[in-house]
Design a protein that fits this description.
The complex is a heterodimer of chains A (164) and B (734).
Chain A lengths: L5 H8 L5 H9 L6 H12 L6 E4 L4 E6 L2 E6 L4 E4 L9 E5 L2 H5 L14 E6 L6 E7 L9 E3 L1 H8 L8
Antiparallel strand pairs in A: 1-2, 2-3, 3-4, 5-6, 6-7
Chain B lengths: L10 H15 L9 H5 L1 H23 L5 H4 L4 E6 L5 E4 L5 H15 L13 E4 L2 H4 L5 E10 L2 E11 L28 E5 L2 E2 L1 H10 L3 H29 L1 H26 L3 E12 L13 E12 L5 E4 L15 H15 L8 H5 L1 E4 L19 H22 L14 E7 L5 E6 L32 H7 L2 E8 L15 E7 L5 E6 L23 E5 L3 H7 L15 H5 L3 E5 L13 E5 L14 H9 L5 H6 L5 E3 L5 E3 L1 H18 L1 E2 H13 L5 H13 L1 H11 L3 H5 L6
Parallel strand pairs in B: 10-11
Antiparallel strand pairs in B: 1-2, 1-5, 3-4, 3-6, 4-5, 6-7, 8-9, 9-10, 12-13, 12-16, 14-15, 15-19, 17-18, 17-19, 20-21
The chains are: A alpha+beta (164), B alpha+beta (734).
InterPro entries (chain A): Aceto_COase_bsu/gsu (IPR016750)
Protein name (chain A): Acetone carboxylase subunit gamma
Organism (chain A): Mesorhizobium helmanticense
Chain lengths: 164, 734
């Protein structure tokens, strides 16, 4: 069975593995022990102690925080209950003028700000840009991901979450 | 009528029985146990490998018969072997989108009673390019031949080539001006085009008299038929070795195994749950010549997708909330939507093991009736369905990627495919003859970024995983234009920790012709039709066309004066304007204009992919390399990524790490200062929503989505705490 060390997975997630090695991992049969090893890699990366239950973005994790499960930034900022859209608790910067769009697209033709805006969802504590939405003005903010956390742990990992 | 049916049931009844068994048991054709695989797994795997080899070999042989640079150079072809009921057992590489569309074509003929009339007999050749029967668009012409073994129908061999010219209202394959079916070009609707392994002469005559460049279509027909016969004979030889009964059983077990493998892969690579995303497409034809006033000239389409992965491993994609079909060329049929799903799955999940229709059977598409995904009018045009298909399946790739990241398989996360606008052309060739062609160098756009590295530069499109732009010299043989430039477009990948792959731009001198019609399709210039992920930005929108009529390039060349070979990096004044005299035009696509002639200059940019991750985490050293090699500009490095570059002794950019750290800290601080709580933004924005203070196209988009989708309406109302119906469709009943 394919398996990789935690160190290799850490370097893979960090984009630090040499390309030939990365390519071999991409082409090989997948390692069935990946999930918990990768969670351990992320757990080493964060300074807080809440156990990570699921990575949901580059720097966002669902973790067990006391009796509740919350979406937490790598910096420790909590966006609240993981079942709610974390974006609604973020800070936002909207680019809906040619001037503000030009800051990101300095040498290209631009979209029409009457038709389209860019919404940047930012951690209010550390300033990490967690997600960018390109949407028509007035479009509701999308709730990207509602994981079936309990079904995942129970049916796929065979390790039901406590308290479920 | 079948001479000797495989079973007591006739083919149509057999197909219905197969579907009933699938409904009853949940397994393909009621196969609840893979008995042959269990008996001898090595034989099972070896046989499928042989079938795949037959397909790959037949396709490669056929490409040498084709005259089309699209097929020969770029590989716009796929072949596959099917069961008698029309389910794909094995397939070649290439434009795999059509493996399942051909399946629909075969099933359509069976259900329409082709056994009785026109009958299905050994040596027959059937062709189709009608998307409502089973293809994506008119240029995707498919041929299938039945495989008989000792009088029994034992399967089908099928092949598709993308034609470069289809005889539509505008030249080329992707007919951008088609607003109804009747202007899309030459239709072949599940037609028997040959018997006894020979293409009928009257069919060839019809092609020759209705196409601008029949040599492509006609020789592609011969290439496809040759590949089908090659596969047919190989399958017959195989059956003579393994026996008919074994073949009939194993060919179906292959598909059931493929279905199970897809479910297993979903459980292995993803996390169950609901994933959502969206993209948009802006369609602008106002004031452009040739468009009939059948609807609003400008449209904004929203493409929301909700993907559900259940704990049994099934993936369902739901397009509820998207826009209605329209009088334009970008509608899609369920066959096309299936094809998009299939080719995307083959790239991300179904790339190993027994690749076949089984993977498709483990998924479900929900395509709301009346929308562009499932028109309730079969007269609509689908000539450029890829315009909406590619953005839609780019969303699918991002949704899948979210699940890969959650499961820890970061190396599989991919920001997705993008539109790659095409050039279609026709008129008088450089040889003085009539011609027509689609330029297929578009098949090498930039890809979205990965979660661990930058995207592929000029090397990816969603519809063909073997992306290739073709050689300049070959394209120049086929059109009255010569290249004066083909180069990377700086910043064309979306910004991010890992940037999207960059695209390229070509510049041509129109040569040896007095009449060259140039048109382009799949343009979304007003809105992003791609996206970034995890903090990455979308790639730029489609770029405008820059052309020079009556240029003085020959005079400049004679003097040895510098020319311009690309538009440059000033969005307001191109290098053409700076260096070349003549009548300069800047046109927002689609490009539909008066014919060009020798001495004119034309340029066309393709699209890059979206970025991944926060720009402030991008590697400064890699960025310096990007600037040195033309993938990023210095302005972008500084302004977008917060990276300070300085020059080394030779004038090459190098990263100033210390200054970069300082600058990024300031950018992060400024980022927080510029941002406001989302709750405050929603409160402020609600007033604009209540007043519907939007551009007419935006208002129309909301009105259409609300009319078609109660779920979209409810989500909109819940989010803004408003009554969307009274805002966008006043007077309508709730």
């Amino acid at each position: 069975m394919t398996s990789y060390s935690k160190e290799i997975l850490r370097d893979l997630a960090g984009g630090q593995l040499p390309w030939p090695q990365t390519r071999r991992i991409m082409s090989a049969y997948k390692d069935d022990d990946r999930f918990f090893k990768m969670v351990a890699v992320y757990q080493d990366r964060v300074a807080w102690k809440d156990p990570i239950l699921l990575p949901v973005s580059d720097h966002l994790f669902i973790c067990q925080s006391g009796d509740s499960r919350v979406t937490r930034c790598e910096c420790s900022h909590s966006f609240g209950d993981y079942r709610k859209n974390w974006k609604l608790s973020a800070a936002i910067h909207v680019r809906n003028t040619e001037e503000s769009l030009r800051e990101i697209y300095p040498n290209s033709d631009l979209p029409d700000p009457q038709w389209m805006e860019i919404r940047e969802f930012i951690c209010p504590q550390c300033g990490t840009l967690h997600e960018v939405e390109a949407a028509a003005p007035g479009y509701p903010i999308v709730h990207d991901f509602e994981p079936d956390l309990e079904g995942f742990y129970r049916d796929w990992l065979g390790k039901p979450l406590e308290g479920t | 009528m079948l001479d000797k049916p495989a079973s007591a049931l006739r083919l149509r009844e057999r197909l219905i029985e197969s579907e009933r068994l699938m409904d009853e048991t949940g397994c393909y054709d009621g196969i609840t146990e893979l008995s042959l695989r269990n008996q001898d797994p090595l034989k099972f795997e070896t046989l499928h490998t042989k079938l795949r080899a037959y397909c790959v070999s037949a396709r490669e042989m056929a490409r040498r018969i084709s005259a089309s640079p699209g097929v020969r150079e770029v590989g716009e072809m796929v072949v596959a072997i099917y069961t008698p009921e029309g389910d794909a057992i094995a397939l070649s590489n290439g434009i795999m989108v059509h493996v399942h569309t051909m399946s629909r074509f075969i099933k359509w003929m069976i259900k329409e009673g082709y056994e009785e009339n026109p009958r299905i007999r050994e040596g027959d050749i059937f062709a189709n390019n009608d998307a409502f029967i089973g293809t994506v668009q008119v240029p995707d012409v498919m041929d299938v031949v039945p495989i008989f073994y000792e009088g029994t129908l034992v399967g089908w061999a099928g092949a598709v080539c993308h034609e470069l010219e289809v005889g539509g209202i505008t030249p080329g394959g992707d007919v951008c001006l088609a607003q109804e079916r009747f202007t899309e070009g030459l239709f072949v609707c599940a037609e028997k085009i040959g018997e006894n392994d020979e293409i009928r002469r009257d069919y060839v005559i019809r092609c020759e008299r209705n196409l601008r460049m029949p040599i492509y279509w006609v020789l592609d027909e011969k290439a496809k038929v040759a590949s089908c016969i090659d596969m047919r004979e190989s399958v017959k030889q195989l059956i003579s070795e393994i026996g008919l009964d074994y073949w009939m059983k194993v060919s179906k077990e292959f598909i059931e195994e493929g279905r199970r493998a897809q479910l297993a892969r979903t459980r292995q690579l993803t996390v169950p749950g609901i994933y959502r995303g969206h993209t948009f497409y802006g369609h602008v034809t106002e004031g452009k010549p040739g468009f009939q006033p059948l609807g609003d000239p400008n449209w904004l389409y929203n493409i929301p997708i909700e993907m559900e992965i259940t704990t049994d491993g099934k993936i369902t994609m739901d397009f509820d909330g998207t826009q209605p079909w329209g009088y334009h060329s970008m509608n899609c049929t369920p066959a096309g939507m299936d094809g998009g799903m299939f080719v995307t799955l083959t790239q991300h999940m179904n790339f190993e093991g027994l690749v076949n229709d089984g993977a498709w059977m483990a998924t479900e598409l929900k395509l709301p009736h009346g929308t562009w995904t499932n028109p309730d009018n079969e007269m609509v045009a689908t000539a450029t369905s890829w315009a909406l298909l590619l953005p839609a399946y780019g969303v699918f790739q991002r949704l899948l990627s979210r699940s890969f990241i959650a499961r820890g398989f970061v190396e599989e996360a991919f920001v997705g495919q993008v539109n790659s606008p095409m050039i279609e052309m026709g008129g008088e060739s450089q040889y003085g003859t009539p011609f027509g062609m689609a330029h297929f160098e578009c098949a090498a756009a930039g890809s979205g970024a990965l979660a661990i590295k930058d995207g592929l530069d000029t090397a990816y499109v969603g519809w063909n995983p073997e992306s290739d732009m073709g050689n300049i010299e070959v394209w120049e043989q086929s059109m009255p234009m010569v290249y004066i430039g083909r180069s990377i477009v700086p910043n064309s990948g979306g910004a991010g920790k890992y940037r999207g792959g960059c695209s390229f731009v070509s510049t041509w001198l129109i040569n040896k012709t007095s009449h060259l019609r140039l048109h382009t399709s799949e343009h979304s210039s007003r809105v992003f039709d791609n996206g970034g992920m995890c903090g990455g930005y979308p790639a730029p929108t489609c770029q405008k066309h820059r052309a020079v009529r009556n240029s003085d390039i020959h005079e400049l060349a004679a003097k040895g004066a510098p020319l311009a070979h690309a538009p440059g990096i000033d969005p307001h004044v191109s290098d053409y304007q700076k260096n070349i005299g003549g009548d300069h035009v800047v046109v927002e696509g689609p490009y539909i204009t008066a014919p060009h002639k020798a001495g004119d200059i034309f340029s066309h940019s393709y699209n890059g992919g979206g970025g991944y991750g926060d720009v402030l985490e991008r590697d400064p050293i890699k960025t310096a390399w990007d600037v040195e090699n033309g993938f990023l500009t210095r302005e972008a490095a500084d302004q977008v990524f917060g990276i300070v570059l300085k020059d080394d002794a030779d004038g090459y950019p190098v990263a100033d790490i210390e200054a970069t750290v300082e600058r990024r800290a300031a950018v992060r601080k400024q980022r927080l200062a510029n941002a406001i709580p989302v709750a405050d933004w929603i409160a402020a924005e609600r007033g604009r929503v209540e007043k519907a203070d939007f551009a007419p196209e935006v208002k129309k988009m909301y009105a259409s989505a609300i009319k078609l989708s109660s779920r979209f309406t409810k989500d909109f109302n819940d989010f803004w705490n408003v009554d969307a119906i009274s805002i966008f469709t006043p007077g309508a009943k709730p």
